[in-house]
Amino acid sequence: MRGTIPGPQNRGQPTARLVRFAPRTAEPKEPQPVSTVALNPRATAAGVLADILPGTRVRDALLVASGAGLTALGAQISIPVPPSPVPITGQTLAVVIAGAALGARRGIASQLLYVLLGLLLPVYADGASGAHVVWGSSGGYLVGFVVAAGLIGLAAEHGADRRPLLAALTFAAGQLAVFAIGVPWLKVAADLSWGDAIHYGFTVFIFGGIVKAVLAGVVTPSAWRLARRVDGRG
C-alpha cells in the first residue's frame, strides 16, 4: 500500500506511507595473505631441528642415543695441552650441536646417557672409561656437558639457533657453563690454586671454544635453511 490521501472522511487520521529500502551490497573483501606457517608447518613451527622429524617416543630415543654417540665421537678428537690434565677435545662442539638440535629435555638426556655409558665403555676422551674419570680432573666438565646441553637446548627452543650471530653467542655462553663447573672441580681434584685452575682449565681453551661456537653458529642456521627448503618442496 503506497499511502492514503487524506479526504474529508479520514481527515485528522494518521497517514500510512510505504518506505522502500535499497538492498545493502556486500563490501568487497581484500585477499588475505597466505601464511607461510600453513604452507610449511613442520619447518617453521618446530621448536628445534629434531621436531621436524616424524615420530614420538621411538624417534626421541634414537635422537638421545645419537646425541650421546656424537659426544663419544667428539671425545676421540683429543689434543693434549700440557701441563693441563684436561685435553682439548671435540666434545664441547658435540654438546653444543646436540643441545641445539635436540632441545633441553632430550639434550640433557643425551649427555646423561653419555656419562653413564662412559662408566662401562671407553667413550671418554682418549678412550678412557670408569668412575675414576668422573671423580677425576675431567669430571666437572662431564657434569657441565649435561648443564650446557640443557641451557643451549632451552635457548634453541626459543629460536636462538636460527641466526648465525645469535647462535654463536648462545653456544659460547653454553660453553661457559661447562667451564663454570669444570674449573672448580679441576681445582679440587688436582689440588691446584685458583690461578692455575683458571689457566689450565679455562684460559687455554678460550680460542678453541670461540672456534667451536662460530662453527656451530654456521652449522645450525644452515640446517634450518635446508629444512625449510626441503619442507617447502615437499
Automatic annotation (TrEMBL):
GO terms for cellular component: plasma membrane. The keyword Membrane applies. The keyword Transmembrane helix applies. Keywords: Membrane, Transmembrane, Transmembrane helix. It holds the Pfam family BioY. One of its GO terms (molecular function) is biotin transmembrane transporter activity. Gene3D superfamilies: 1.10.1760.20. The chain crosses the membrane at residues 112-135, 141-158, 165-186, 198-219. InterPro entries: BioY. Coiled coil: none annotated. Belongs to the BioY family. This is Biotin transporter BioY.
